[in-house]
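Page 42, continued from yesterday. The earlier attempt failed because a stray header line got pasted into the input along with the sequence. Redoing it now with the clean sequence only.
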Amino acid sequence: MSDDHARETPAGAGDAPAGAREALAGAQAVLLAALVAGGAAPPGFDEGRLRIQAASLISKRRGTVARVRPDLVALLGGDFAREFEAYARGRPKPPGGSRADARDFADRLRSAGRLPPEPETAAGAPRWLRPFRRVVKLLSGAVRPTG
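This time it went through. Structure tokens are written below.
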């Protein structure tokens, strides 16, 4: 057996019966649901510690969204943490990562009347995206780099 194969397959992993792997996958799904989607604590887990960990994961998401969309922090002020907690509790991070999370959070705030409609630029991009327009054009090949 090569060293590469030994790193890819943990010892004994191929020996586990299919039913054991399915049971483990099911238990992991229940634990994940408890941590990020407001699911019930799986048997044998301390509910208090799971709540602490779930709150920590929401806090991490909140910090990332604050870095991606500082305008939301400025607009909401002291309400940002509470509003994000209400949005994120029981809602896993959407596909697309932190930018999608920030977009969905802003959309939720806008639909609740907590944010004004997003102003559009002449090109149809949101105002907060203006500084990045040239970078986007460079990456898309629409303009050539200077210098």
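Notes: DSSP finds seven helices and no strands in the chain.
Reminder to self: strip header lines before submitting.
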